[in-house]
Design goal:
The protein has about 575 residues and is α/β, with parallel strands linked by helices. Helices cover about 30% and strands about 25% of the residues.
């Protein structure tokens, strides 16, 4: 099957996801061009990138991660205080306001919280009934369409829940899942090349595929090695926080599959139980998944579930500042430098601490975005294209704020032609290496290589491709609109000790109250990383051509311009 034919099939299967409103997001040219006018970086631009101030970065991270911000939860007073802080900084730098309310771009939301104590969940097999505790044995997602709903349906195991004809994989082959609840592993087959693996791992895409086959529910299970990356105790804490979906002009929540009436996760202790009486055990299913074999079969159990959800309207705002470009012919094109401002807010205490300060996730990226804006504002000559500095809400709620921005007119009806996203830059040790996530898909590869060389940073391949982070942060909102994007992340010093420290941090501190100012921060490394991001943005904004997808690239073909 040709790539073009495969892309057509994906488009048809994901029609609800990909048919979006008419946008001002311009499709970049695919023609090659020099990175900038002179082929070199002007002295003033070099100097600005080398003048990033570690003290300013530290001061901004400390302000944003202070207990007074209460963890910057979407739709909370703490988040609003953080948004005003960022807006004030943008104003002081002389950026133009890019929101509907000054620097603020208010977003209407539906906030939904599951009432776990009012919910019920049972596995049923003949005369046998196994009640599971909601919030411990099974984690249910809130319902954005219904306040109370009962589901009674058979269970069907569908492997990874992936249909990828171009890769010869279909977990639904020969199965009838109409009116049933599917049980699927998180992620996608390991044999898939990294790009399709990232794409097919996305939960929204998997839900859409399940709904397209007639399923009415999706229950996710983990393989044993997933526990280290996503500990069940962390998942339990997060599911008790409210969910958010932005509302369209008619008041309907976006990115919701109406056909999926039940969604949740089964605990590690429950997973083997659901395979009892089935053609394969849980261990056999894991082995097949690890070997990338398509698999699927009816389970012996059915499910009875009652989901009760509290819903209310809410509002939270992106913060948008604009630096106009110098070229009258190109200033209506813009590069976006994005960083999410929100974090998890207040949660149940962990070792007596209930404030999820989010120092690394993502006060670090927000501080770097502001320092990048300061450097651009200091230049005697601006780049040819405009730059939008975007501080988004609702990233932790499913990329909500960036998705809203990407689907609505950019400031002054400018066309977005590229995104540089800054999210959770770990500075646990002196920084010598970085990963340019997603750069390989577009001309951002050359741009990032040059910027990293200027910063004295070595770019290395993604050490954890299984994490598929290219679809997990705000850059993916732009990618879905056909816009090339890059997500630079730190790789610390590249030593085994550094890798171990990073792994420990992700297990113990990620999405926990301990992501606070007590963690180690190498601020000079942060300044060097910010310089790299600044130079990359300048090269993209000043080039004769905007960033462009590589010919035949998976994401460019899947989401890029269509005839």
């Amino acid at each position: 099957m040709s790539r073009a034919r495969a892309a057509t099939l994906r488009s048809a299967r994901l029609l609800g996801l990909l048919l979006l409103p008419t946008l001002v997001l311009a499709a970049p040219s695919r023609k090659s061009a020099p990175l900038n006018r002179e082929g070199t970086v002007p002295a003033a631009v070099l100097a600005a990138g080398r003048a990033m101030d570690p003290a300013r970065l530290e001061a901004d991270v400390r302000a944003l991660a202070d207990d007074a911000m209460e963890g910057r939860g979407t739709g909370t007073a703490g988040y609003d205080r953080a948004a005003r802080f960022v807006a004030d900084r943008m104003k002081a730098l002389g950026l133009e306001p890019g929101g509907e309310d000054g620097y603020l771009q208010p977003i209407p939301f539906l906030r939904a919280r599951l009432r776990a104590e009012a919910c019920a969940f049972e596995l049923r097999r003949g005369d046998e009934t196994v009640p599971l505790e909601v919030g411990r044995d099974v984690l249910l997602s809130p319902d954005f369409l219904r306040t109370k709903w009962t589901t009674d349906a058979p269970l069907v195991f569908v492997g990874y829940g992936v249909t990828a004809p171009e890769l010869g994989h279909d977990d639904f082959a020969g199965l009838d899942v109409r009116g049933k609840v599917v049980v699927e592993f998180r992620g996608a087959p390991p044999r898939f090349p990294n790009d399709p693996r990232a794409y097919y791992s996305n939960s929204m895409i998997k839900d859409q595929n399940a709904a397209a086959h007639g399923a009415i529910g999706v229950l996710t299970i983990q393989k044993p090695d997933d526990e280290a990356r996503a500990p069940w105790t962390r998942n339990m804490r997060q599911t008790r926080l409210p969910g958010f979906r932005w509302l369209d002009a008619g008041g309907a929540p976006a990115n919701v599959h109406a056909a999926i009436e039940l969604a949740g996760q089964l605990s590690p202790t429950t997973e083997p139980r659901v395979f009892e009486g089935s053609p394969s055990t849980y261990a056999q299913a894991v082995a097949a998944a690890d070997s990338s074999r398509a698999q699927g079969f009816p389970l012996a159990w059915s499910v009875h579930a009652v989901r009760v959800t509290e819903q209310e309207r809410a509002s939270s705002a992106n913060v948008v500042g604009v630096l106009r470009g110098s070229d009258p012919d190109l200033r209506d094109e813009c590069l976006v430098v994005s960083a999410h401002l929100d974090h998890l807010g207040l949660s149940e205490p962990v070792q007596g601490d209930s404030i999820n300060n989010g120092a690394y996730d993502n006060a670090s990226g927000t501080a770097m975005m502001l320092e990048t804006a300061r450097a651009f504002a200091s230049l005697p000559t601006r780049p040819r294209r405009s730059i939008v500095f975007l501080s988004v809400t609702g990233e932790e709620k499913g990329l909500q704020g960036s998705d809203w921005f990407a689907r609505h007119p950019a400031p002054g009806h400018m066309s977005v032609v590229g995104d540089v996203n800054l999210d959770m830059v770990l500075l646990l040790r002196p920084l010598t290496q970085a990963v340019a996530i997603g750069a390989e898909h577009s001309s951002f590869a050359g741009i990032m290589a040059k910027a990293a060389a200027l910063a004295g940073i070595t770019l290395v391949p993604d050490p954890n491709p299984a994490e598929v982070v290219f679809v997990r942060s705000d850059q993916f909102s732009f990618v879905k609109q056909g816009i090339p994007a890059v997500f630079p992340v730190s790789a610390n010093d590249g030593t085994p000790e550094g890798a171990s420290q990073t792994s420990h941090w992700r297990t113990e501190h990620y999405h926990s109250p301990s992501d606070d100012l007590s963690q180690p921060f190498d601020w000079p490394s942060g300044a060097r990383f910010t310089g790299m991001a600044f130079w990359a943005t300048w090269l993209a904004a000043d080039g004769a051509q905007p960033p462009r997808w590589n010919d035949g690239d998976f994401f460019g073909t899947t989401f890029g311009p269509r005839p």
